[in-house]
Specification:
Distance between the termini of chain B: 11 Å
Helix content of chain A: 40-55%
Number of domains of chain A: 2
Distance between the termini of chain A: 79 Å
Radius of gyration of chain A: 23 Å
Strand content of chain A: 15-25%
CATH architecture of the largest domain in chain A: 3-Layer(aba) Sandwich
Radius of gyration of chain B: 22 Å
Strand order of the largest sheet of chain B: 1-2
Number of helices of chain B: 14
Number of helices of chain A: 11
Largest sheet of chain A: 6 strands, parallel
Structural class of chain A: alpha/beta
Order of helices and strands of chain B: EHHHHHHHHHHHHHEH
Shape of chain B: globular
CATH superfamily of the largest domain in chain A: Response regulator
Structural class of chain B: mainly alpha
Number of strands of chain A: 14
Order of helices and strands of chain A: HEHEHEHEEHEHEHEHEEHEEHEEH
Oligomer: heterodimer
Helix content of chain B: over 70%
Strand order of the largest sheet of chain A: 2-1-3-4-5-11
Chain lengths: ~350, ~350
């Protein structure tokens, strides 16, 4: 009896060993597809995603087959592109907000395919995940640098669309700057575009003309950095990827969108059969928000910024820590209080007290 | 020296064969381009993806028809104007305005369902497009302003207007301020005529419009009037045709149809109004109209051909990682060969030696 049992156990373990072996050595590679809103280029939003995809390839090697499609317009064509990809892939990353409705529609028709939508908020079926990053943590760090580096006490902010993501960035940068420099003021120009070098350059010049000597941007081109480089005494921060090459003497640091580890994790999860629907909102701690090397600043400022990063990394500070009032003077957060993710951070639609621009509506 | 001399009797057979000839020439040219630039991909598989797969795969057939429908509609309207010598280059703008005005009605009645809803939205879209093209007709008749410039410039205005609308009154109230409208509810969406695909009644309407236009041009006096105004304006005047009326007619028709096409995009494949609404259908339809020699039935086929370049080009990008400009190259080559063939049917090339002797 015990002998037979032993045999069966042996048989069973041998079988599972074989299965495991088959799984790892002979399993088909995961087919992963990425849709980009713009050309890959050498900076900005899509470039940062593409760097992440390169990281994924480095990590998984032959376990993944990657398809990348650039410049897919956010119109009804995108649904067809996503469908075409869904027919041949295991997981699809749609890397811009405007793909939200098409992603949802295709996901409903292809329940066996996994979908990952960047910066969206709808997950009606259990094969859609959404992911974004706590970029306001990056703004917290550059806000501190800005507060120390300005001589005119005026930060110029080039904003894209008045969506919560952008509002969070403005509030976070302003609060951090004011925490190290009580006289700080922030001037905001809305350009209503994510990428338009001409408009962004005009906005940068207008802000400099109003006295700003620090330029922050929530847009994608290197034009503001180039303008800052041309002007004496003006410094700027890059966006989404390292923009130091466009402002050798103006560039302080850039907030870098580091999607690579996330992409590697998610594709590994598909390979291992552990993928589940989720909403990811990672920050400095998880490495999704990173920074370009800091330059053109005194060592003390850099050390302070590095300490801030370490604090964020340890989860020891929150960019929104009370007391904070709304622009109209009403209390948002009491002393020591931090806001809940939903609704306060996710739907943020107000300026904090001290910003004297009119809230766009 | 080379001269083009009109042929006395253009070949009837060549008039029918030239589209095929142009297509063949495009394919041959494309073959050489691919043979040059592709090193590790088989040219034959690229060709299969470009020209064959969209025609045999049911999903891509449905998408071909989805893509062709707005092109048919817009090109029909344009072809009427082009026949009359009225150059509406800004159908894209009228398309956007139609999408906005028609869509606005749908958003206003957001919680209401009824059989009258889509007809009412369609009416609003047609009127919107008509109004927008009407501006050019008014300026042309009253002040002799060139309609090419007016319609083209108004396209940029329309796109900015769309962006203003989506950041203001038409913005989804529960969409976190993203510049998009609410998705339309099912009662405001065009009925699907092929289940499991995006093909909607828009295609049927486009085909019906083709036949109506064909009959109108053939049987109705206004068809003759348009043709004569376009080909012989002085003769038209002597015949008592009112060229101002023709300008109004041509622009209002093309604007109205483009407006309707805009709405059908919004309540068809898009399902909501987004900043991505303008997608060059208005400009591509100009190619469609000329490739069909302004013939209303032929427009259906040339629209399908252009749709094929879109979908084949897109898949080539997906499968082989080739640049998206492939689509544009194909459209450009097609039009070039079509026009070149047409010129050579109507004219013959003559080498004139006498001039050289004089020199």
């Amino acid at each position: 009896m015990s002998n037979r049992r032993l045999t069966s156990i042996l048989k069973f373990s041998l079988l599972s060993l074989m299965l495991a072996f088959t799984n790892s050595a002979f399993a088909d590679p995961v087919k992963a597809a990425f849709i980009y809103i713009g050309p890959t280029g050498d900076h900005g939003w899509t470039y940062a995603h593409d760097q992440g995809v390169n990281h994924l390839k480095d990590q998984l090697g032959d376990d993944v087959v990657i398809t990348r499609i650039e410049s897919v317009a956010e119109n009804s064509d995108s649904e067809r592109v996503i469908t075409s990809l869904a027919r041949k892939n295991d997981i699809i990353f749609t890397t811009s907000f405007g793909y939200m409705e098409p992603t949802i529609k295709v996901a409903a028709r292809y329940p066996d395919v996994k979908f990952e939508h960047a910066t969206g908020y709808k997950r009606p079926t259990d094969n859609i995940s959404t992911y974004s990053a706590r970029f306001y943590e990056g703004r917290h760090v550059i806000g501190k640098i800005a507060g120390r580096m300005t001589n005119t006490n005026i930060i110029g902010y080039i904003a894209s669309f008045p969506i919560p993501e952008v509002i969070r960035g403005i509030n976070s940068a302003f609060l951090a700057a004011r925490s190290v420099n009580p006289d700080i003021q922030i001037k905001i120009v809305w350009v209503y575009t994510w990428y338009d070098p001409g408009k962004e350059a005009d906005a940068a010049r207008a802000l400099i003309a109003q006295g700003a000597d620090i330029i922050m941007q929530h847009t994608d081109s290197t034009a503001p950095m180039t303008v800052a480089e041309e002007e004496d005494g003006v410094r700027a921060f890059g966006q989404a990827s390292d923009m130091s090459a466009w402002g050798p003497s103006a560039h302080l640091t850039s907030i870098i969108n580091n999607w690579g580890p996330y992409y590697a994790d998610r594709v590994k999860a598909v390979r291992d059969g552990t993928w589940t629907e989720t909403d990811t909102f990672d920050g400095v701690e998880e490495g999704m928000v990173a920074f370009a090397p800091m330059e053109n600043m005194p060592d003390e400022v850099m050390w302070e910024a590095q300490d801030t990063i370490l604090d964020l990394d340890a989860g020891a500070v929150h960019p929104f820590t009370g007391p904070i009032n709304r622009q109209d003077g009403s209390v948002w957060l009491a002393e020591g209080e931090t806001p809940p993710m939903f609704p306060d951070i996710i739907t943020m639609d107000f300026y904090v007290e001290g910003i004297d621009s009119k809230y766009p509506n | 020296m080379i001269r083009l001399i009109p042929r006395a009797q253009p070949s009837k057979a060549m008039i029918f064969l030239s589209p095929l000839l142009a297509l063949t020439l495009t394919a041959v040219t494309a073959f050489f381009i691919f043979a040059f630039i592709l090193t590790d991909i088989k040219v034959s598989s690229v060709f299969y993806t470009l020209f064959v797969e969209p025609l045999i795969d049911t999903y891509y057939i449905s998408e071909l028809l989805v893509k062709a429908a707005p092109l048919i509609m817009i090109a029909l309207g344009l072809s009427i104007g082009f026949r009359a010598g009225v150059w509406n280059i800004g159908a894209e703008g009228q398309y956007v305005i139609g999408g906005i005005t028609g869509g606005a009605v749908g958003l206003y009645f957001y919680n209401v369902e009824g059989f009258w809803l889509i007809p009412l939205m369609s009416l609003a879209a047609i009127l919107g497009g008509m109004f927008y093209a009407g501006i050019a007709a008014f300026l042309k008749n009253k002040y002799q302003v060139n309609e090419i410039l007016v319609t083209l410039m108004l396209t940029y205005v329309a796109v900015l207007f769309l962006s203003a609308m989506l950041q203001g009154p038409m913005r989804n109230p529960s969409g976190f301020n993203f510049p998009e409208s609410r998705p339309f509810h099912d009662g405001a969406l065009l009925p699907i005529i092929w289940q499991g695909t995006r093909l909607n009644v828009g295609l049927i309407i486009a085909v019906i419009l083709s036949f109506v236009t064909w009959l109108g041009i053939k049987k109705h006096l206004s068809g003759l009037q348009i043709k004569i105004t376009g080909s012989a304006p002085r003769a038209a005047k002597f015949a008592g045709f009112d060229d101002k009326k023709t300008i109004w007619f041509a622009l209002l028709i093309s604007g109205g149809v483009a407006g309707l096409a805009g709405l059908f995009e919004v309540i068809g494949p898009a399902g909501q109004i987004t900043p991505g609404l303008p997608q060059f259908y208005g400009f591509t339809a100009i190619i469609v109209a000329f490739m069909s020699r302004l013939h209303p039935i032929a427009i259906i086929f040339s629209a399908l051909l252009i749709a094929l370049t879109y979908i084949g080009g897109e898949n080539v990008q997906i499968y082989f990682n080739l640049p998206s400009s492939i689509t544009n190259i194909f459209q450009g080559m097609l039009l070039f060969y079509f026009l070149a063939c047409d010129v050579l049917i109507q004219y013959k090339i003559v080498f004139i030696k006498t001039i050289r002797q004089k020199l």
